[in-house]
Amino acid sequence: MIVEELVKVSKVYPMITALSKVSLKIKDKELLLIRGPSGSGKSTLLNMAGLLDLPSSGKVLIRGKPVSKDESERAKLRSEVMGFIFQDFGLISSLNTIDNILLPTIFSGKNYEERAHKLVRLLSIEKRIKHYPNQLSGGEKQRVAIARSLVNNPQILFADEPTGNLDSKTGAQVMDMLRGVADEGKAVVVVSHNPEHEKYSDRVVKVKDGEII
Ligand SMILES: Nc1ncnc2c1ncn2[C@@H]1O[C@H](COP(=O)(O)OP(=O)(O)OP(=O)(O)O)[C@@H](O)[C@H]1O
Ligand SMILES: [Mg+2]
Question: Does this model's pTM top 0.90?
Answer without folding.
Answer: yes
